[in-house]
Queue: 2 jobs
Job 1
Amino acid sequence: MSATLWILLGGVAVVLLYVIFAFNRLVALNQRVKNGWSEIDVQLRRRYDLIPNLIETVKGYAKHEKQVFERVTLARSQAINASGVGDQASAENAISSGLKSLFAVAEAYPELKANQNFLALQEELSATESKIAYARQFYNDQVMLLNTRIQSFPSNLIAKTFRFREREFFNIEDAQRGPAQVDF
Amino acid sequence: MYEQIAKNKRRTILMIIGSFVFLGAVGFVLGAVFYSPAEGIVWMCVGLVIAGIQSFVSLRYGDKLVLRATRARAVSPEENPRLHNLVEGMAIAAGIPKPDIYVVPEQAPNAFATGRDPEHASIAVTEGLLEMMNRVELEGVLAHEMSHILDRDMLVNTVVGTLVGAVVLITEFMFRMWFWGGLTGNRRSSSSSSSGGGMVQVIFLVAGIALLILAPIFAQLIKMSVSRRREYLADAQGAMLTRYPPGLASALRKIADSPNAMRVASNATNHFWLNEPTRLRRKGEKASWTDGLFSSHPPIQERIRILEEM
């Protein structure tokens, strides 16, 4: 009698411990996903702040490249107003490709390329670009871990009970995989 | 790559447990052989307490000491924006706070990370490294150092290092006690010389002396083996951070070919560096197996090979 009782109690204790462990693990991963997202946000904002400066500097040397300026400005305002992970990602794509063509345009103006301000902005932007890539990498890794936990048995039962939801990946298609910096 | 990291981690945990057990065993056996089993337990406790105190002190103040010993100088973001940007990028990729950044006035290309946890961490690079490496290579090196911070290798190194230190200290102390005690005729031999257990005692004594001599050597071997494991682990994890193993591989190749020897190299700080500072081997010279056992870092060619296969 008492033996079966003990075994029963032991079993309940093990299950309870597992529930606590799995729940805490999900909370921790959820938190890491949130941190990852806010880091992406910080870097994206940094890029929004740098773009007007860059356009002003380039304008001083290359007045009639209006099209490129407009494209980048438009992409920037769209990105600022974007909501949701998917929208944000595609808006950021537009900025990245706009910036690429802006720097391609700059290639044609030797005085611009010698401008100290321009060079500093270029370093800042390319560094921000790679920080965005790393923030995205960290975020996506954590999303993957979280989603795997939410889907796999038996942690999916706990996730369902406590209403943990899967997160969306932040996908930016990039032409060249490899070192996450952009050489303008 | 995930499995490799997991495997390395398991081995490191075993190593740490192993070195604690080893220290305890050395203290106990030596105490038991030269004194009595009860005193063996006392010696075991003495060893563990010494190691504990030493670990605590060096974890608390070790990073400052190392930075001062290598004459490292803090650099501001204005002074070197590129270095700061790269370190920040790696910190973001690792999901930890940005560490403090130092530059060591030294022409040999090298780098190290220190600090007891990711919240109190520093990365130092030599001037030679900054001059020699391009952006991708520098990033590879920084990713390697960031992995040391992420894995709390300072903690592992310190714990293992002080355990080794304690083994050396205890064996030395006992050796002296026994030596002087032996000259004046110690308790044990005077009390039991007439009881006929002489032969057994002699065997115990010989084994004890052998242990006195061998224990510090074994301790050193354990320490270096742990250190080498951590280097492979940091290489693999660094590659995970940049997602670009060739960056670090190319940096290591440049380091292997660099002729500069380190001025600040010393055995005390060896295991901190990206590559072993004092190692100066001519091209084509073969490494002997004893070199492998006593070095704090794996052979650089082997590291390059593994990175290239990733």
Job 2
Amino acid sequence: MTLALREMRRRPGRFGIATVILTLIAILLMFLGGLLDGLVASSTGAFRSQRADALVYSASSRNSLERSRIEPEVRRQVESVPGVTRVGGLGSVQLGGRVPGRGTRDLVPTVLFGYELAPRGLPPTPPATGTVYADDSLRAKNVVVGTTIRLGSARSAVTVVGFVSDTRYTGQGTLWGSLETWRQVLNANRPDARVGPGVVQALVVQGGPLGRAGLPERIDRATGGATRTLTITHAVNALPGVAQQRSVFNQIIGVTVVIAIVVVALFFALLTVERTALYGVLKAIGASSRALFAGVVLQAVVVALIASLIGIIASLTLNELIPAGTIPFVATPARLVSSAVVLVVAAVLGCSFSLRRVLRVDPAAAIGGTP
Amino acid sequence: MFLALHEMSRARVRFGLLICAVGLLVFLILAQQAIQGGLISGFVGALRQQSAPVLVYSVDGERTLQGSVIDPLLEAKIRGVRGVAEAGWIGQSTFTVRVDGGTESDAALIGYQRAGLGDPGRLSAGRRPVGPTEAVGSVADFTVGSRVRIVPNGPPGATGPTFTVVGLVKDAQIQVTPTLFVPWAGYEAAVKSANPDATTILPSVIGVRPTPGVRDAELVRRINAASPDADALTRSQAASDAPGVAQVQQSFQLIFLLYGLVVPLITGLFFLIITFQKAAALTLLRAVGARSGALVRSLLIQVVLVVGGGIVIGIVLFAPLTLIQLGAITIRFDPGAVLFWSVALLVLGLASAMVAAKRVLAIDPLEATTGAGGL
């Protein structure tokens, strides 16, 4: 072990290029992961923040909030399902917002949500008509408490009374108001999407402790198939593009990890070949194959750890440098640590390909002078 | 040449591993390049394929068809701009549909009021619609003769319009969704069946054609000057400036840059270590008369074979991927992109081997007589 570390200290150049390559791979892993996390977080926050057990769409909406319409009659059926304790309406509309101090053409993309059951971070009662809570990503767009945002071509005015975190939807900052605020703004700006009295896009459902199991199925049975009910987790995964993004990015990350394994295997295979004679001498004076291989593994782990550390610093720097609204990258501790762990495991796996060569080293050959 | 090949055949595992690593990297680069192209085409392909040379959004629409609504007042201002020869409504919404009586799926409808302003520019098969229930579909998602029924919202027994696909157009999706171009009357019927509360169906954008002698860019400038609520764009601007397109391109460019750096670094590292390991043998070769140029040539031949082999493996892995549909994204084998990356990676690989080549050139044959023989 000491020998392995001493070699790294005395001849750092030998490990330099491998460290640089693994660092690039670490940055790639963390960047790809951060990109995935950023894309998913900016698309799903509004749903993840729901304090509910299920989300009820109309059956023909294909889990699209914008296409879903729940009539008051269907709502009454849902409310009467045994195990359902609270039901709240939910509606959304995407509109450009005019924020004071910005240019006449410099609108802020927003999604206005109307709600009855408060998501995490919002007070239990929706704010008064014409007032909203804003997602804190909108702070970067000059929105502060008291700002009046004029939404859509009808310039529907809503005044911000507070902020809420991590509630973005389809990559846009959200505004949270009462159903009445939402209905007024929607009907004023989108005549093709207007809704009648009592109509909402979806229902947010809370179940009692004994009534949660099988809740979605019971709701859909009670409405005679007029609804499609999903748990919040399923609703998040059913958002357009989320599952596809996860699948594509995870496959790319997987292949990148395989490349990391090959790079480490290649590097340590070459190093082992180079050190065959030295290993022979060490074995001749009593070093075990296990000790020699442990040294190789230790060197691989150290290289991977250094690469991961630089990768983490680079990712955090990137996280600070990327302007809001450009690349949807977010560096979370979980992603950075998991990427580092994956890289270390890849390094151990990669250097394991050298095990056979270390085991085959013959100490007698070293004494005889032939490597 | 003989020496280079002989060495590679003697050390198949190490050269094989390197070729595999380069091959995987080439595969990743080509696959991601194709995904980027497919994604962008899926996002905005319909905008590129539609026939209106200028599209006028409302500023509030943030340059998205689904977000933009043109009210009659704004429409009148647009039509009144000097240089507007023709103007027509274009609307877009996404619907739940059943294709040929199958399971429910998504389809985006683009409704157009006037032929030549919003309908597809060039068909790849079939003909253009002549009635409100005929449609032109994106070629990856529909076939001529497909019947697409809009699944209605509303009371039990409500029915939605059914469209018959009579023509096809390539690369014409919007929002990475199967897309149909339909006449305005059909579009209006579809919107009303999906939302019985809808009162007026307003256009998402106005398609505009300039009078002869007025360039598209000039008309864009005049329309934008006429109203602060109008956001006029040429067809290509509408595609390139759509939200998300720039972010997709920036993200992929950063990924390509990182992968592009990894390939030469791996190749350079490999050949540098190999050169170190062969130091004694190379010194001996120089001492018995081998010219340094020949040794460098041998090194470069190995680089070309390794990177070339990796490129071939990468292409072989990538090619089958282009035969399948990745969700709604069409992955294309783009010979131009393959050629670009092949040449770029070969050049970068050769450049990375220059450090090793420099070491070879620095060998002093005299050291063979002293027993030093190192680099």
